Amino acid sequence: MKENFQNLILHKKSLLEKLGVDLQDVPAYALFLSKLWAKNQELNLVSRKMTPEELVLHLIDSLLPIEYFPDFSNLADLGTGGGIPAFPLQIHFKEAKLFLYEKSNKKKEYLSWLRADFPRCQPYSEIPLNPPVDLITARAFKPLVTILDMTKAYYSNGGRYLLYKGTKTRVDEEILEAKRKYKNLNPKVIKLDTHDLGIERHIVLI
Fold first, then answer.
1. 48 in a domain, yes or no?
2. Residue 73's domain is classified under what CATH number?
3. What is the pLDDT of residue 48?
């Protein structure tokens, strides 16, 4: 299955190059996807109806904003689930250490199993108010205000966030809601170039 995913990823070679992805990392991305695929039927990490081609699109989706990531050494991924964007980001940002926060014990066991191949990714169950990192990310997780509530001490200490979000309408709604509680919140919203993927994506930078 790894070879199959490798071929599928390479079908998107030109897009990956535009995003700044090192094609030498394709085998590592394929390894991750093959392991995710192998465990998905058992654990429902992503939709069981998802095809390999659709899973590759999730991988690419997680790599869309890599040019906007600030320098960091330690990154927290909140609600890691099946490992996207955490593992693709760790493959790209090779020296970084990732703190994966996932409350499901079964998914946490799966994330621990992946550590044999990706030792710089460490899973945890509970999200602390002040994660010991210099950047927080999350994809398909919680609304902005909830993320800030869950990491309140980190935010109060000037913590940085890069959050994956969908439509501009939804982003605006989340920011408006968050500003009612966090009066000094001043996020930067960037619309991502999704090329030919047919989706709308934004990131929220704090």
1. no
2. 3.40.50.150
3. 78
